[in-house]
Amino acid sequence: MAVLKQLSVTMENSPGTLAHMCGALAAKKVNILALMSGGHEGKSLVRLVVDKLAGAKKALDTIGYAYTEEQVLGAKVTNRPGTLAQVARRLGEAGVNIEYAYVGAQPGSRQLLIVLSLSDFDRGKKLV
Q1: Residue 99: how many CB atoms within 10 A of its CB?
Q2: Positive or negative torsion for Cα 21, 23, 104, 50
Q3: Domain final position from 70, 94, 117
């Protein structure tokens, strides 16, 4: 389990904007470790965890994409049916709400990376 910094980037929800951001990050040698994107009313909110936070911020500043930085919890867990249910149940039983989450894994990989935004971060990080 690790405390991670996540960037939440707001951009137009139109063809090429995500590619533009990803290209700017690549130019700064920033690797995207996890990403979630959703659109609403012509805008996209992209949440991402990267390997080089300072480089990512410079890239986003250069292209003029607005962003915020938040603390999230990253947990590597076993990649098998029921793992996410177990984590969610443990948090729920302790009264910690999952505000949003995203998960990633390669097929056949033994581990998942779960990224969690929690209502009670300090309590939640002890439970995962």
Answers
A1: 10
A2: negative
A3: 70
